[in-house]
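Worked Example 4.2. Consider the chain below.
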Amino acid sequence: MSGAYLPELPQLLERLALQELVAAKWLLACVGSAAVGLAAWLLLNGAARLWPALRTRRGVWLAAQGVVAAAALLPFLPHPAQTSITLAPTTIAMVDATPSPLADQPNAAPTANAWALAAATTTEDATSEHASSDDAASAVGRAVPLMAAIWLLIYAVGLTVAITRQWQARRMWRKLRATAQRLSPADLQAHGAFTAGQLREIAQRKLTVLRTDVPISPMLLGARRPCLLLPAHLDTLSTAQQQMIIAHELHHWRVRDPLCLAIAAALQTVFWFNPTLRWMAKQMEWALELSCDQHVLAGRPQHQRKQYAASLLQQWTTMTPIGVAAFNGATIAARIRHMQKDSLPALSTAAAWFTGGALTALLAAGAMLQPALATNIPPSAGSAPTVTATPGSAAATPAPTTASPAAPSTEPWRAPLDKVRVISFYGVMRSVLPTPHKGIDFAATKGTPVHAVAGGTIISAGHLAENDGRYGNAVIIDHGAQRSLYAHLNSINVKAGQQVQAGQLIGAVGQTGFATGPHLHLEMRQNGQIVDPAPMFANLDAYATPRALKVRRQQQASKG
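Applying the procedure from the previous section yields the following structure tokens:
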């Protein structure tokens, strides 16, 4: 291996870790979308039985499809979660982010005796219990990357098939459009089936009207700028029947129904694995047809309604399989029953509010149930060894190097969080990078308050450019003998030059920089070198996850 390649290895491993994270998130996205879709199907199917008017409303079914699609975006949005999953290219550990009790008084700086007393309450039985649950969670967690990779392969195959079908259908419609004859304004005037108002509207909005000899149903081709395709067999109908059929298609055009159908088709292609989207699309298509039927028949006498129904039956019997799709699976008998009514059933205010509120609640529930996926990528060895000053931060200082653990100071540090749970120790090797971990990671949800571990002076507060910005928003406090660094903060409550006391609020946990899940990364720096901060805390092991202890123990044994 060449020396020029070595500096690029950390960046390569970072990209691999992020790719695995994206694959795992997409797996969660697909599962969440399918679950929300099933819940929406059960909800709307039951609501439609109670309020039949729901089946005739285009907006209900379009909104339902939007909720199912939006559910797939939830894993990719930053949010606090009760459960976090920390990913690495070869390992995945599930960590319960529920804080463990460490300090009952948030603003008090506990002494070493307080730490020891709290640690003494943790029994061996409880530790064994946590170890069993953590090992079980780890076993499940290790299977997630494999499942994500398998699903990604299956999804890619299914997406290819779905796109191929859409491409074939589009190619068929393009061929049909290319072989059709375009009707000029003079042809439309001589056609006799267009009213004067329709001709003016077609001319003003520049709608292209085509005529084809293929026995299909009249339809609109295209989504953004559709064209009206009329089959030649319409000439066998009476002028009144032709006018009603054309009015039906023009109403589709006015209310932009082709665009709604295109959106539904795109969602069905992307989420080809979700059958509820296909069901919702069929319900929406049925609502579109009923709405246009009622628009055409509004105020017309019964004999004209019968003529319209007869023309529908005649089209059904003369169509090829290509044109059957225009009826969207709806039965002729059901449509004729609706044609006999003066109007569509009214949708009550209660039904509208219930449906909207229920769909919103489904999306909110999906957001709350989403676990937070995280991969902690520590600073790489090849990063620039300087800190660039940013607004609100101190002047640039040389970046420290890694050294052996330092002896604890006479004054122990207080916990940086009110509730402490250590998920990664200093110096452990992970598959993300070939360099050891340079700090201690504490599990916490986004927005958890972060406190100064000891009194001192803020020397940097804001985005930290050190290590190519991997620390994100960070605070560095000078305590005299040592410095403490708090990385990946979501918000910062102090400024450079400010004096702080132990336990004072300095910011909130976040996931800025190269940490895609919320947690606190704490470093200790002494004499320009990075050292292990664990000796500054009394019995920190009592608040570590069994997995974190196991990884450290195994690596220490291998080194020994």
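The first strand starts at residue 83 and ends at 87. The longest helix spans residues 124-179. Compare this with Example 4.1 before moving on.
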